[in-house]
Each structure stands twice: as structure tokens, then as C-alpha cells.
């Protein structure tokens, strides 16, 4: 499959002037702090922009760049319009008589038609996801914590080499309660209410898309546990627009379906990551139904990817395999080798869980071949997390499921070596996986040392998934506590758990 040739961004290069890429990256980080953003910009990111590899920045970088160069648009900075890099198949233009698709749906778990928000998306979003903490840092946050939510837009499993942010130290102790309480501040904001007469237009669609971004960035900052219930409110509001709104344009209806589906996937991920697997399955199925109704193959592929991931976590390996294969069918015409690579890795994970080593190895080979074709403009925004470290980590999980500890260790170690230290959450995850593989492979001293490295990062990172991996690793290592490295890791972990 051919990929689009990158076109150098000469306008952006001109704006850098005589600054080196590293100096310009430092200026970007300073500008981000001025407006309450957090971006992990470095010389490599600047180089990728100038080379044309990043055709449109994520929302965080967009705000920073527009702050740095007031009066300019993204086009002035050499970028392309966001809708051109959404990873959706182009649709034929609708004629004046084309009707917008409508949808019926089941509401999120525990809700029914009577629970639909009648106050519109404006109030739901403003109450659930305020932009800033009023009056400074909320009680309980450590001194010096930024008061504004960062607007980095994570995609996939909380890692994104362009926009991942560190989870804050305040997440230790009373964290879920604190994060949820912080979302209660604020009132109706600037998001437009549905138009008179039930018409749904660009303002409402943009509000739904903003909800997706806001949920993802808040999850990156706070974790899933304190956000899930809050996130259900804008989700209900978004589907209320689908149920009752009438759009004047087919393109508006398509964006609304896509936005509502992505919102359902984001809320489903919050449920997934916080251990509410049945709720996650319901939300993922909701997104899949929305995708099928709208004929949105990109959304369908995303829904199947998440469903496969969830099924693997729940031990339903045959379902994980079928979902991955369905995702591959949906994605085959989208022009994104990286998306096909990720879905093929999901397939490999399902085959590994079923104990089919030969088929797993064949799928891993296909995934690497697809990954090697490189990035494309059609790559969906949500999967910008999928780089070489994640590729290695997912392959390590396959070998771990097959009980091939030497190979699992080799790939898990590569994931930790390739992962940028700026992204502490992913680094902690990969090191936790490495510690577990080392422990099961009998390399207990190295496992204890790797466990210590994970604990070093837990001041910045709070993840239910990482905690579960560490718990399992500690259980495996406990009979070998006579080994000094193991004893030190177990004692330190116990002490941190009691804090």
C-alpha cells in the first residue's frame, strides 16, 4: 500500500528563523505555559513538523502555535485543515434533497429516555468539564500545580509522543474523589446551545468534538476513575442531538455521528481503564452501532480495535480475534497502514491468547511489515500514540501470553528503551510489563530492579492498569524475597501502598 509523500512545511521553517530546533522547542514550551498548556515539544517534534510528517497539529499544539503567532491561521503556519487528516473516508457531496441520517439508541448503562439532558450540550459540558479551576488550585492539590487543564489530546491507550502529559502527584491519596470534585466547578460556558427549531449545525457538532478532546485530556491528567460518571452526561447530550436534531447538511450529520461515536469510545475507555468492563462493552457497542448506521468505516475500525482490546483484557480471546479481524475489514480501504498494523497486532494478541503460536507469529510479521510502510495522512488522529515503543510492547504481550519469557523480555526491554522519558505514564507501563516478564522468566533480581524503576515513576503516574501489573509481579516474586533486589522492591511497594 502506497503512502503519501510528505511535503516540507516551509512556512513553519521560516517562522523558526535563526533559532535551532531545540531553542524553538523551548520557546514552544514556554508559550504553552503562558496559556496553561503542557506540551512535550522537543527538537524531534519541530523536525517532524518542518519535514511535513505532521500535517496538522493536535489541539494543544494548535492553541500554542496560534498564541505564539497571533493573527495567523493554521494554514498560514503551513498546516492543512484538520478535516483532511481525520482518517475518514471521503464521502460524495450531498445534494440539496439528501436527508441527514437519524439514529435511535440505547442510553448509557443505568439511564433511559427520561434521563436525556433537555438543557442541551452546553450545560452538560460546562458542568462536567470546566476549562479551569476558579479561584486557583483546588484544595488538596500540591503547591505549584497548574490550575488550567492542559489541552493535550491523547489517543488510544494514554500514550502519544506528541501530546502525552504526566499524571500529577496529587493523584496519590483521595485521588478519584478529588479529581471528580474538581470537575464540579463551573457553570454554563461558551459552547453554543442547540439552535432554535431543533436544527443542529456546526456549533453543536464542534461542541461534541470538543467533548471528545476534553475527556481525553482530562483522562490523561487525572485517570479514569474520577471521570467516568461525569463523562456520561455529555455523552447523553450528544446522542440526544442525534435523536432529536435535524441537520441541514449531510456533512454536518456525518460529523455529528462521528463525534458522538468517538465520544462513546472515549467514555467507554474511561469505563475500561477503571475496571468497569461491562459498561465499557456497552459503550463500545454503542459506538459500533453509530458507525454502522452512518457508514463510517474509520469509526467502525476504531470501535473494533477497542472491543478487541477489551475482550483480551477480559480473557475472551476468541472474541478479541474476531473483533480485530472485523476491524481489519473495516479499515482496508482507509489508506492507513499504521491502523492496519495496530489491528493486526490486536489479531496477534487474540491468537496468542488462544495458544496458536504459528498464527500469532504470522500476524506479528504482517503487523511489522505494515508498520514499516510508515505514517500516512489518512492515519486517524486517535492513534497518534502508536509508535515503535507501543509496537514492541504489544508484541511483548503476545510472547508473554504464549509463555515465551525470553522473547517477551526482549521486546518489553525494547519498548522501555525506545520510550521517551518525557512520557512517564507509558514508561512506567512498559517497565511494569518488563518486570512481570522477568519475574516469570526466573530473572528475579532483574525483575526487582525493574520494579524499583516503576516505583520511581509512581509519584508522577497513577494507573489502575500499572498497579494491577505490579500486584501480579509482587505475587510472583514473593517466594523469592531472599534475593536483595526482590526484598527491597516488595518492602518499598508495601510502604508506598500504606501512604
Number of domains: 4
Distance between the termini: 53 Å
Helix fraction bin = 55-70%
Rg estimate, integer Å: 23 Å
| Number of E strands | 2
Mean pLDDT: 75
- Low-pLDDT runs of 5+ residues are 86-193
Roughly what fraction of the amino acids lie in strands?
under 5%
N-to-C series of helices and strands: HHHHHHEHHEHHHHHHHHHHHH
How would the global form be characterised?
Answer: globular
Largest sheet, spatial ordering of strands: 1-2
Number of helices: 20
| Helix and strand composition category | mainly alpha
Biggest sheet character: 2 strands, parallel
Question: What is the strand and helix layout of this fold?
Answer:
Elements: H1 10-16, H2 21-34, H3 43-51, H4 59-68, H5 120-128, H6 175-182, E1 199-200, H7 202-222, H8 228-244, E2 246-247, H9 250-273, H10 277-294, H11 297-313, H12 317-331, H13 337-353, H14 357-372, H15 388-401, H16 405-418, H17 424-440, H18 444-457, H19 464-477, H20 484-498
Parallel strand pairs: 1-2
Helix pairs in contact: 2-3, 5-8, 7-8, 7-9, 8-9, 9-10, 9-11, 10-11, 11-12, 11-13, 12-13, 13-14, 13-15, 15-16, 16-17, 17-18, 17-19, 18-20
Region (Disordered): 86-109
Protein name: PT domain-containing protein
Organism: Streptomyces pyxinae
